[in-house]
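User: Sequence recovery, please. Input:
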């Protein structure tokens, strides 16, 4: 009590590094807001306590992050970390189609391609974004509202928890587009999946459903967000929900195939989106985490995070330079093939032709690039 006058006579210190200069309102941008803490049992809000919501706002490009959006996420993680009123951070995106499909390929192709130093500087920003999640001073929940692919999969895994819409899909895409998933997935996937499954996820570029990822342990919970005309909750019709084994394989959580998948996609379009169940689950998570002692909670979280951080920190610096250098080679052709798909009708290079040229020890020159790039439609 004798020292109370010292506290009263000193202003509370401000530990913020950023203002609001990295947040926006119009896409593409990163949004930042605080939402009152809600008691899920009573529905009442708690005075003076909040969750911080960081939202990727670029739905027209499946919430791919631009350079400025990367800055916004980093700033948001720090802003929430040092805000005494914030109990947890929710990292999400606009709309119901995608959480994030990675870096903005238009920006990659039209600016960073064949500018290795520029892309190195960009990758340093990206690395800092991942670091900002792994060292956030509050629990970080990925509210996965749709596709979480490529770099989106990587930043999603940097979070502490994932609650996914059951319509979400997960996967990598780098090796088809001139890059590699070394922005986190090669470090994080082996912790969430078996080594074999992590290897296949990182290289095969398959999309796996939220139900499959819940079964395999990559997400905390997959929750329906769709309703039919009667107002009933409906699971993603594209996904097999029956728990049985076919030809020695578990098919629960796998995407349907062929005509069945085409029919299911049509059914999905006729359903409406309702975030009620998913957001209620997240509110309950935040409430549960809030009803703990802060220092012990964060020490526990950090003790688990350090396993992910260990392997991330081993290679992150060298990968910045490798990915930068790669923009003179496979990154250049991969991202430009994707970016010109509106003209060519194809998103990838001719892989077979490329491998044939490599087998002949061809020089990576303009002639090789011309040979493997997709041609404009006639």
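Assistant: Recovered sequence (378 residues):
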């Amino acid at each position: 009590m004798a020292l109370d006058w010292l506290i009263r006579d000193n202003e509370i210190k401000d530990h913020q590094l950023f203002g609001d200069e990295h947040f926006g309102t119009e896409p593409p941008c990163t949004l930042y807001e605080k939402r009152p803490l809600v008691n899920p049992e009573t529905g009442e809000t708690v005075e003076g306590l909040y969750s911080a919501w960081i939202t990727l706002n670029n739905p027209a490009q499946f919430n791919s992050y631009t350079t400025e959006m990367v800055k916004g996420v980093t700033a948001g993680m720090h802003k929430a970390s040092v805000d005494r009123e914030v109990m947890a951070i929710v990292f999400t995106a606009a709309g119901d189609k995608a959480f994030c499909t990675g870096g903005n390929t238009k920006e990659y192709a039209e600016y960073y391609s064949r500018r290795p130093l520029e892309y190195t500087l960009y990758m340093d920003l990206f690395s800092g974004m991942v670091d900002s999640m792994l060292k956030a001073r509050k629990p970080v929940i990925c509210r996965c509202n749709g596709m979480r692919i490529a770099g989106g999969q990587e930043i999603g895994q940097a979070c502490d928890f994932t609650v996914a819409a059951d319509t979400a899909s997960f996967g990598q895409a780098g090796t088809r587009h001139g890059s590699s998933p070394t922005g986190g997935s090669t470090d994080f996937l082996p912790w969430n999946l078996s080594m074999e499954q992590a290897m296949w996820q990182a290289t095969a570029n398959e999309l796996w459903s939220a139900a499959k990822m819940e079964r395999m342990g990559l997400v905390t919970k997959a929750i329906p967000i769709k309703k039919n005309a009667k107002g009933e909750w409906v699971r993603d019709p594209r996904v097999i929900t029956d728990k049985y084994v076919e030809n020695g394989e578990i098919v629960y959580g796998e995407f349907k195939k062929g005509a069945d998948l085409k029919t299911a996609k049509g059914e999905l379009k006729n359903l409406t989106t309702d975030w009620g169940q998913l957001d209620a689950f997240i509110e309950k998570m935040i409430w549960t985490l809030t009803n703990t002692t802060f220092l012990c909670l964060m020490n526990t979280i950090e003790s688990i995070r350090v396993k992910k951080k260990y392997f991330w920190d081993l290679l992150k610096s060298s990968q910045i330079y490798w990915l930068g250098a790669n923009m003179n080679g496979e990154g250049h052709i991969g991202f430009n093939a994707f970016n010109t798909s509106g003209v060519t009708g194809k998103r990838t290079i001719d892989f077979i032709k490329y491998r044939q040229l490599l087998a002949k020890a061809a020089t990576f020159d303009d002639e090789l690039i011309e040979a493997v790039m997709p041609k404009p439609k006639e």
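The radius of gyration is 22 Å.
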